[in-house]
Design brief:
The protein is mainly alpha-helical. The protein is built from 6 helices and 2 strands. The protein has one domain. The radius of gyration is 12 Å and the shape is globular.
């Protein structure tokens, strides 16, 4: 997971799925999040995916309670997902 998401989102801001959905991950300043930001964002994906019985329910609850709709990984990495 880290090997796929980190370089693509960190440098190009998109993965194949994000490109198809026409969304991108950017820093809060609308620049590429960089490899460091992407490592942080995707490293916390494990927490966002809890509980594994209903994947990403915790991430969804956290995102819906945030004004910028950021899951925990995005909040810590200071990144957002935007429509392109």
């Amino acid at each position: 997971m880290i090997i796929y998401y980190t370089p693509l989102e960190g440098i190009k801001c998109v993965t194949l799925g994000k490109w198809l959905l026409q969304i991108a991950v950017v820093g809060e300043d609308f620049t590429a999040p960089g490899l460091r930001g992407s490592v942080i964002r995707n490293g916390i994906r494990v927490v966002d995916a809890l509980p594994f019985v209903v994947p990403y329910i915790l991430g969804t609850i956290i995102a819906r309670s945030n004004a910028k709709w950021q899951r925990l990984g995005n909040q810590v990495a200071r990144s957002i997902v935007i429509n392109v």
